[in-house]
Design a protein that fits this description.
Length: 259
């Protein structure tokens, strides 16, 4: 972290500590916003006070609760009219396997859950999100991850659902934390295939050339069209060339635009 960050923080924030050197308060911009920390057995209460000069005068209270191992198990955020409650469950290895949110601040209220699965390497292998009404849980989204031997994410697959019916699938491939390929598929209200889009990115090792290709297919997996965008840069990373090529359903070049 840069020294500039700390100098900025010193001018913006004021920190206070109790006799046990635990944070007691944080004041922001001469008290426009202040957080006070109150400690109880396995609980930390955080009170956020807003000055009328911020246009949102009042106080919000957040309460963190912890288990015997010091792991957070519940967070309650309260204001004058409603509250949001988040909770977490862990397995025997101390890994979070279920997160839950109950939000009474929305018009109709909202309850959601996220199940977290792990692979043999202890990396997160899948996230599954659910909308909850009473005893019914409806899958709304899932994300699956792939890793290399160093534990870096090299791929993910996201599936979105509408009332339990699959509406889209997006698969990404990464290299050095950069997306190099992406395939997205959209489905209709019955879950039937509608359209598929494939996007790829190619970059030269010296960074002087980039090519982005987007290809679309219909429900019968026939080509709809394709575009290819190319960028060239000089040794100072300044853009010196840009072009766009458009292809039709027969993969025939229909236009070329150079910028």
């Amino acid at each position: 972290v840069s020294e500039e960050f700390f100098s900025d923080a010193e001018s913006l924030f004021e920190f206070g500590y109790d006799s046990e050197t635990k944070p007691a308060y944080v004041s922001y911009y001469d008290g426009l916003l202040q957080y006070k920390f109150e400690y109880e057995d396995k609980k930390v209460n955080i009170r956020a006070s807003f000055s009328e000069d911020m246009g949102v005068e009042g106080e919000n209270v957040s309460v963190f609760e912890f288990d015997d191992k010091g792991m957070p198990v519940k967070l309650t955020e309260q204001d004058e009219d409603c509250e949001i409650i988040c909770s977490w469950e862990y397995d025997e290895q101390g890994r979070c396997v279920l997160a839950k949110e109950v939000d009474t601040c929305e018009d109709d209220g909202y309850t959601g859950e996220c199940e977290i699965s792990y692979g043999s390497d202890n990396n997160v292998s899948m996230l599954s999100f659910y909308d909850v009404e009473g005893d019914e849980r409806t899958l709304s989204e899932s994300v699956e991850y792939g890793y290399d031997e160093n534990g870096k994410i090299i791929s993910d697959k996201e599936i979105e659902y509408n009332e339990g019916i699959k509406v889209s699938v997006t698969e990404n491939t990464y290299k050095n934390s950069v997306t190099i390929a992406s395939t997205s598929t959209r489905y209709d209200e019955n879950g039937d295939f509608e359209i598929k889009r494939v996007e790829t990115a190619e970059k030269s090792e010296d960074g002087s050339d980039e090519i982005y290709t987007t290809t679309e297919y219909d429900a019968e997996d026939k080509l709809i069209g394709k575009t290819i965008q190319e960028y060239k840069y000089d040794e100072n990373k300044n853009e010196i060339y840009q072009s766009l090529k458009v292809y039709d359903e027969n993969d025939a070049l229909t236009s070329t635009t150079v910028l």
